[in-house]
Amino acid sequence: MRIIFYVLVTGVSAIVTFILSLVIWKLSTRYRLYPKIRERDVHTRPTPRLGGVAMFIGILAAFGVASLIPQLSLVFSEPGKVLGLLGASLIIVLIGVADDVWDLDWTTKLAGQVVAAGILAWQGVQLLTLPIGGQTIVSPYLSLIITVIAVVLVMNAINFIDGLDGLVAGVAVISNSVFFVYVYLLQLEAQTDYFNLASLTTAVLIGACLGFLPLNFHPARIFMGDAGALLVGLLMAASAISVTGTVDPGIIAQPERYTAYFVPAFIPILIPFAVLIIPLLDFALAVLRRLRAGKSPFTADRKHLHHRLMDMGHSHLHTVLIFYGWTFVVSVGCLGFVFMPWYLASSLLAFGLIVCTLITLAPLSRRKRLRQLAQSAGPESVESDSDLSQFDALDASAATPTSAQPTAQAVSLNGKPQ
User: Fold this and answer.
1) The overall pTM is greater than 0.90
2) In angstroms, rounded to a whole number, what is the distance separating the alpha carbons of residues 84 and 100?
């Protein structure tokens, strides 16, 4: 019956977020409270970006209801952590809204993120232990610095993938659901408190994303903006740090107990990375790409993973679903080590990764097949080249009529001029 209280706060967060998202969307549409379309944007019509405000208020409402539930009172026995989390969230939302409205420079945004992460760590949400061999971070200054870096990293990683309708909200629902199951099992087997800040934060965040997703799924009527994406990243980082950074090293140092009743010692640090694998990968690639080009790591561009998938030939919706699939396979696959022998969990994870890879690379196989058909049919087959042009700019230029073909005209597959 303990789970019912988490379901309750999740529902409050979802309902409040949905209602406020609807209100903000209607008001923003009526009074044209939305920015112009940027060159790197995928959407083609101006769309409100203040959905993060609705998510934040929904999260506040859920925490307020949770504070009134006696069974969850243990979470609020350390009010500093809760206030630190909500205070950091408020700062992040204000920074995000200011960026969505006035387009702040990256140094200002980074400074605000560091301040928010510092408040979170200052109030006790810190990495105190590293669950690898039971290592403890001795220096409080080192703990604070590592925590701030980790929080800022996760916030920016989540913000970097916020480029398609429903992408961040859906990925957050999947990954946080898996993380919630993991945290609940950890509490069960380690016989710790069933109601803690990590579980509550994860449940509330799932609700906010579920409430926002109906208006954000393709075609989106409202975006969460930087306020929402940074907020999601902050709460995911906080929940991961709350549980990963406070795992009892004494339990992990007892392999006979820990392995017999739960999972090998690497899982506590593997799961948080697993649920964030896609955002962290995109973040790392973006930073390397921009540094190699001599630009700031925070310079915006149109070369993120979701952009590349669409350039390969995936539709907007298919690209989002592929991200969902990768997130589900990696996070659930790692969680599988909790329930089954390692060799069976490894096999299922490998199978899922292979399926995701084949689906992701499917447009390349189609392009190769069309190119082979065009080459075998001879230069008179222009329609295949025309079909290829939607995948590659070089193919499009190759299909352009030249002086050697003065009367050639690109046609579609049904024979009509394009």
Assistant:
1) no
2) 24
